[in-house]
Amino acid sequence: MSGVIEIEGLRKTFRSLRRGRRVAVDGFDLLVEAGQVHGFLGPNGSGKTTTLRALLGLVGADEGRMTVLGARAPERLPQVAGRVGAIVESPQFFGNFTAYRTLRLLAVAGGVPVSRVDEVLEQVGLGDRGHERVKGYSLGMKQRLAVASALLKRPELLILDEPANGLDPAGIREMRDLVRALAANGVTVLVSSHILAEIQLICDHVTIISRGRRVAAGRVDEVLAGFDRNECLVRADDLARAEELLRAAELTVTAHADHLVVGGVPDPALVNRTLGEQGVWVRELTPVRPDLESVFLELTGAGQHPTVPRQADGTPHDPAAGQLIDLDIRGVDA
């Protein structure tokens, strides 16, 4: 496997009269390998969009090394721009143009066959709305159009910043199916989203950024495993007695109104056996597994320093110390 996107030690600062010097990205690393659907997560202000903009040559980096499809970025982006599709931040279009006209202009500018326009409109679910003016589109329809523009060149690498923004649940599912279909056809996808459950469904790898630094990276299942505390949710016919017995067995117990959360349980059968032998009958015994949302909140919690993530074996992992982007018309591939 090869590194389709490689970022090492990226650093970017901004200066303003009002806010002074602000570090947006501070020694950030990112590796996206061929064939991955890679989730890129971070709270607002974490440096996520700045990283994508630096990678695509839209802002200059202070320090760091970046490559896209093996080409040094941003210096050699023109060599690979025809193989990359990207949208970053909110899409912007000419309101009086139709979607078809918008994509046709982009296709002509990028040397893409015009026949491709109808194909991508169908691909994103706008086949029957392509000849309507964009100013009448909803936010979700504009987002679909942005994705269509990124697909015009049949890219090998697709970078999507909040592709589900403005979509209803049906649209989110369609976007999920589209990303999966693209990945099945060999497209590498880097996708950022605030819909963490969706990222967990469609991504095989994930990188989390907080305060400009990488705080977790790896396969989604391995990142989640690093935060698995072997907890179980327990409901029993005598909850107070169950709590007493489990504490006596030297298990960690957190009592709630109608259930217990028991930690340090390598095998849930231990809870069942401990209570059953004493005549306390278990009504529910459910392993509590971390999801991407809970891990994300723990790593990036407001007002807290990020927790160092753990590897699958439990050992600490040391983390690394409003526009449509079309590379053809932004001067990178002119």
Automatic annotation (TrEMBL):
SUPFAM superfamilies linked to this entry: P-loop containing nucleoside triphosphate hydrolases
Family matches, as Pfam families: ABC_tran
The organism's place on the tree of life at top rank: Bacteria
Keyword match Protease: no
Alphabetic keyword roster: ATP-binding, Nucleotide-binding, Transport
ABC transporter domain ranges (all copies): 5-236
Keyword Heme: no
InterPro entries: AAA+_ATPase, ABC_transporter-like_ATP-bd, ABC_transporter-like_CS, P-loop_NTPase
Single GO MF annotation: ATP binding
Region of interest (Disordered), ranges: 306-325
Homology family: Belongs to the ABC transporter superfamily.
UniProt protein name: ATP-binding cassette domain-containing protein
